[in-house]
Design goal:
With 171 residues, the protein is of the alpha/beta class. The chain is built from 5 helices and 7 strands; from the N terminus they run αβαβββαβαβαβ.
Length: 171
């Protein structure tokens, strides 16, 4: 509630037109207090497990569908769901475009699944990459938030082919 008051005060002082929120600690009550004071609101979510009241909702999770939010947002919310809405820095996009011609000779792969990974999908991929003999020539790097509850467990399993690291500042 204090955060909503501070945000509302900031909006009044600065005349902000649009607010973008990506925070697990912000709920629909906060959104309903704040979003009514701006022209447009955007929520970035990857859990599809709670209500939102924004103009736009972005969930770039692989396989995410609009249907997953059907009972969680109003019918007026514009849903942008699926991996095609993934947001990346210009540097990452340039690197990907530059390497696409060599895609058949994969040697190094970076895996970023987001901050919380509450279902421990990273471990599932780690187990697959570790056991699949067809992948033994590829070096994988998992980038996780150090707040991830499985971070230390996965980092301790790092080996020659699979590394686990904390978030990179320029990703």
């Amino acid at each position: 509630e204090d955060d909503a008051r501070y945000t509302l005060d900031f909006i009044k002082r600065t005349g902000v037109d649009c607010i973008v929120v990506d925070h697990y600690g912000i709920d629909v009550l906060w959104e309903s207090l704040v979003f009514g004071q701006v022209r447009k609101s955007v929520v970035i979510d990857d859990l599809a497990n709670r209500n939102h009241c924004s103009d736009f909702l972005i969930d770039y999770s692989v396989g995410r569908r609009k249907f997953d939010y059907s009972n969680l947002v109003s019918s007026s919310t514009k849903l942008l769901c699926g991996e095609k809405f993934f947001m990346a820095s210009k540097e990452l996009v340039k690197t990907r475009k530059a390497s696409s011609s060599n895609f058949d000779k994969l040697e190094k792969v970076i895996v970023v699944l987001g901050g919380s990974d509450c279902k421990n999908d990273t471990k599932k991929l780690f187990d697959i990459f570790e056991c699949d003999v067809n992948l033994e020539d590829i070096r994988f790097t998992f980038v996780l938030s150090e707040a991830n509850p499985y971070f230390n467990e996965l980092k301790s399993r790092s080996n020659e082919n699979i590394k686990v690291t904390g978030f990179l500042n320029n990703l």
